[in-house]
Design brief:
Layout lengths: L42 E9 L6 E8 L4 E8 L4 H15 L5 E4 L3 H4 L1 H10 L2 E4 L9 H15 L7 H16 L13 H8 L16 H14 L7
Parallel strand pairs: 1-4, 4-5
Antiparallel strand pairs: 1-2, 2-3
Helix pairs in contact: 1-3
Length: about 230
């Protein structure tokens, strides 16, 4: 490996992000490890992981569409309160506008909370939860985080939380959704798979595009101004 310029990637030290609330009421398991969907917005999986930085941990909550493996909702915060998973769910709802989608997760206190359950009821989302302490019950979300860890987190050290936020944004919206290929969907990226196979009208809003920085916006403004025809003096 040394001669070939290859370097192994090891697992990070374990940090618990699933905190079960014994007073919470978990939803039934509607998936039972069958991570299969015949159409978009039929089954979503969700989970939380941590992002280490020199300035402390960030926490990332994601929602994936099982049909295309696409990240349809995600958010980051410095806390593990219920608002973290609510924001990821809200982004997924705004982008996809589903009808009676199953939202599958573990039994973390964020997902078993009354607030999260009430919000799912209001949105017409059907909560589903695996058993306690069994990663296989949410294997697809765990697999996504393993990919994130291997391809980004083990190769990068973030000095600031702002650096981590930007890197995660670029990895999800600039690499994973539009470019990363998956064997389970014919070696296509999630965006390309949806473009080719999604039934008309079932995807909701168009995919997000990276936010342009101030320099890019300024350069575009100069181009537009220079392209305007000169006006005749009055």
């Amino acid at each position: 490996m040394r001669l070939a310029g290859l370097q192994g990637v090891s697992r990070r030290r374990f940090v618990a992000t699933t905190q079960r609330d014994d007073s919470g009421r978990p939803a039934p398991d509607l998936v039972e490890r069958r991570f299969v969907a015949e159409r978009p917005n039929q089954l979503w999986v969700a989970d939380i992981t941590y992002i280490p930085t020199w300035a402390g941990f960030l926490y990332l909550a994601v929602v994936l569409d099982v049909w295309s493996r696409k990240v349809v909702g995600w958010t980051m915060a410095t806390h593990l309160r219920t608002e973290l998973v609510l924001e990821a769910l809200q982004m997924a709802i705004q982008q996809r506008r589903p009808c009676s989608v199953i939202h599958h997760s573990d039994q973390g206190c964020q997902y078993t909370s009354f607030t999260f359950g009430k919000r799912c009821e209001q949105l017409g989302v059907r909560p589903s939860m695996g058993s306690v302490g069994d990663a296989y019950d949410n294997a697809m979300a765990e697999s996504f985080f393993a990919t994130l860890e291997c391809e980004l987190l083990e190769r990068t050290r973030f000095e600031t939380q702002a650096q981590a936020r930007l890197a995660i944004f670029e990895w999800i919206e600039g690499w994973y959704n539009p470019q990363r290929r998956h064997s389970s969907i014919g070696y296509l990226s999630p965006n390309e798979f949806e473009r080719r196979h999604a039934p008309s009208g079932e995807l909701g809003a168009p995919p997000r595009t990276p936010i342009k920085n101030e320099q890019q916006r300024g350069q575009e403004g100069l181009v537009l101004e220079s392209a305007q025809p000169p006006t005749e003096p009055r």
